Amino acid sequence: MGTLIVTEFMTLDGVGQAGGGPDEDREGGFVHGGWMAPLADRDTGSDADDVIFEEASHMDALLLGRKTYDIFADFWPNAPEEIPFTTLLNGVPKYVASRTLAGALTWPGATLLDGDLAQSVAAVKERHEEVHVIGSLDLVQSLLGFGLVDRLNLWMFPLLLGSGKKIFAGGTVPAALHLTESVTYPSGTLHLTYEFAGVPTYGTVGES
Predict the structure, then answer these.
(1) pTM
(2) Among residues 41, 156, 175, 190, which one has the fewest Cβ atoms lying within 10 Å of its Cβ?
(3) How far apart are CA 157 and CA 40, in angstroms?
(4) For domain 3-172+180-188, is the CATH number 3.40.430.10?
(5) What is the pLDDT of residues 81-110, one digit of tens each?
């Protein structure tokens, strides 16, 4: 079975909603859209963009929730070819988890998952070596609950927003994580890579 990797861009208080632009996702009256851009711009000249693309370049399938699919499908099919992600994202198979989309999807190479979500995603992992999930916050909650995520690739920005959709919302299944990589960028952004390491253990601090 292949590896499923979740990549998220998040604030210090765990918000992952609409980092890319003001109108990306205003659900819930969210007014902080575009919070990621000023800090990402400060990292221009560092190797952050290269790292993001290098990690993504290993995918041989992309798994998305409906809202992220809508955003991507509106931009990437006609994106400038000089953007490295254009060829990558347009070329890989794309799977979309949605209860509201129906019929053929407009983005070439995109397929709507049907039936039981856990079984459908497990089947995708069987067919591919490295499946990536980007954004798709509602879908990620389900994948975490099903125990289908193998690696978390988190970009944590030094911001507190106080509102917005959280990466790890209510209902997150307890899990122990192993930090495999940690890098700090000029803006103060942290790049953290975690693999799952079973369930948490418990005790009392100070007791041997």
Answers:
(1) 0.92
(2) 41
(3) 9
(4) yes
(5) 999 999 999 999 999 999 888 777 899 999
